[in-house]
Amino acid sequence: MSTLSFELIFTGPVRVGTGVAGNGMDEIVDQEHPLSETALKGVLRDAARVLLPGTSHGDDAEDHPFVNQVFGEPGVIPCPWNFSVTTPDPAVKNRAGIKIGEKGVVEDGALQIKEEIWFKSASRVKLEIYQRGNLTQLRASEKWTSENIKNAHLALLHLAARLTDKVGQRKTRGMGWVSFAMPKDNRRDVAADIKTLAEVKELFAQEEGAK
Fold first, then answer.
1. Which band of pLDDT confidence, cut at 50, 70 and 90, is reported for residue 194?
2. 92 CB-contact burial (10 Å; exposed 0-12 / middle 13-18 / buried 19+)
3. pTM for this entry
């Protein structure tokens, strides 16, 4: 299986900001592409960092080498996976935001009105992840055949999606809550994928220790 398919189930509104004002709003959404592939890839990568923490912190923070191999490293490793999002026609609504000052009153000039997206419960928001490029070979063990490497990539992508519960801008309470569900005929074994990632982590630890 070289493709992962998910259905995104939202429990409320979501907003992926465009940074563009219009229609009398301080910020509008992209109604043609309300959930960008880049945004979804970004939240999955954040979840992957929890599963495989980086090797340093602060300004010199670096992702775990395998996270870079799966999601790409700008100027070094291209992402070998394509993220494709299918969204039904969303309902676009407006939401006003205010800022309360230290005295408990609304601050002057702190009103913002932004668009947000609502997906009906019957809507089917789908994410498909499929291979588009070559996968980086892993060293140190004959076990890591091309199929095993692909399975390790899929394991990280799958578990990262399982771990993700928020999409889009998060400053407004209750926005962007989501779960990623897999179809019954195409589900992966969570326990097996956790074991695979543990083996990947151990492999890279061994390589780091051998340097």
1. very high
2. middle
3. 0.85
